[in-house]
Design goal:
Helix content is 41%, strand content 18%. By secondary structure, the chain is of the alpha/beta class. The chain has two domains: 180 residues, Rossmann fold (3-Layer(aba) Sandwich); 113 residues, Rossmann fold (3-Layer(aba) Sandwich), CATH 3.40.50.460. It binds adenosine-5'-triphosphate and 6-O-phosphono-beta-D-fructofuranose. 6-O-phosphono-beta-D-fructofuranose binds next to loops.
Length: 322
């Protein structure tokens, strides 16, 4: 095995709080191993366009606490085609890149597998997405921060909802995963939580809301990927209880911004260090993650979408939302 002298790192898919902390951690570790690190700008787009910058540890230290990604990110359609992939390989060869670290979600990891069909360059994935929808890690970068942001927004909505005895339906992100909905809903004391992983939650909501005529707010948290969707849920609520004073809030992209929480920064620091060490130890085609509070490597082809809300979480939902 040739020693690694030059690592390229990119952030891809939706930005997530903690990506900048991970960049700092990667460069700090690489520096100690005498490895140069280049940042690829705008995800796989930068690999196609040969858009690289040398990463400097001191500058990254100054931005490690910020949300977003200083490298920029993209959802690159060009990379999915043969022409884009071949240009990406040309960039790797032209810059003598020995290894690649990709920080992103499951789509970005499918991109890694796609690239690995035409090159043997070692690569490691770091799970970075607010959705927490990846197997092989208990948490992804950005999830904890997004949950905290959503929880605080729902707390604020509760103040006004209580004052008016209103019912609020609040949509949170997560694509087709109900993790943000489950965590944000439970931690803000929601009366009802609707997620894509459950078909029964709408029945519990309808039962509860048809009796609602109280001196209190009623908070419904809905994951954006829920099979019924906010509009139809509101129609159902108004049908079963027409006297309800109903309002809707979609939290949207504000959930993705903001400085990473301490938990996300620690996760980023651990996974950043571990990713460089894994490459130096000859690992490749792995996603680094945290399982049962230990760093772990999962083969990239096993990193499927994590759709399952586990039994314990299901149990919590049934205690608080029935
Ligand atoms: N099947 C695939 N083949 C090749 N490249 C892919 C594939 N799927 C995704 N990619 C590449 O990875 C990029 C990021 O994927 P995607 O937009 O799904 O975000 P993600 O990594 O899942 O992050 P997030 O969870 O934040 O959405 C895509 O824009 C594309 O360039
Ligand atoms: O910013 P975009 O491209 O609209 O993507 C939004 C999606 O990205 C995420 O924020 C992260 O994957 C999802 O929760 C959401 O569905």
């Amino acid at each position: 095995m040739q020693p690694i002298k030059h690592i390229a790192v990119l952030t891809s898919g939706g930005d997530a709080p903690g990506m900048n902390t991970a960049l700092f951690s990667i460069v700090k570790t690489a520096q100690q191993h005498g490895i140069k690190v280049s940042g690829v700008r705008k995800g796989f787009e930068g690999l196609i366009d040969n858009d690289l910058v040398t990463l400097d540890c001191k500058s990254l230290q100054q931005t490690m606490h910020l949300g977003g990604t200083v490298l920029k990110t993209a959802r690159s359609e060009r990379f999915r085609g043969d022409a884009g992939r071949n240009l990406a390989l040309a960039t790797i060869e032209h810059n003598s890149i020995d290894a690649l670290i990709v920080i992103g979600g499951d789509g970005s990891f499918r991109g890694c597998l796609w690239l690995s069909q035409i090159t043997n360059i070692p690569y490691i994935g770091i799970p970075g997405t607010i959705d927490n929808d990846i197997a092989g890690t208990d948490y992804t970068l950005g999830f904890d921060t997004a949950v905290n942001t959503s929880m605080q927004c729902i707390d604020n909505i509760r103040d006004t909802a209580e004052s008016h005895n209103r019912v609020f339906v609040i949509e949170v992100m997560g694509r087709d995963s109900g993790y943000i909905g489950t965590y944000a809903g439970l931690t803000s004391g929601a009366d009802s939580i609707l997620i894509p992983e459950s078909d029964e939650d709408i029945t519990y909501l309808v039962n509860k809301i048809s009796d609602y005529h109280s001196e209190h707010a009623f908070i419904v948290v809905v994951s954006e990927g829920d099979e019924i969707g906010v509009e139809h849920i509101c129609e159902k609520i108004s049908t079963v209880n027409p006297s309800i004073d109903l309002r809707v809030t979609k939290l949207g992209h504000l959930q993705r911004g903001g400085n990473p929480s301490a938990a996300d920064r620690m996760l980023a620091i651990r996974l950043g260090v571990h990713s460089v060490k894994a490459l130096c130890a000859g690992e490749s085609a792995k996603m680094v993650g945290i399982l049962n509070n230990k760093v772990s490597n999962t083969p990239m082809q096993d990193v499927a979408k994590q759709h399952v809300i586990n039994e314990e979480l299901q149990g919590l939902l049934s205690v608080f939302c029935r």
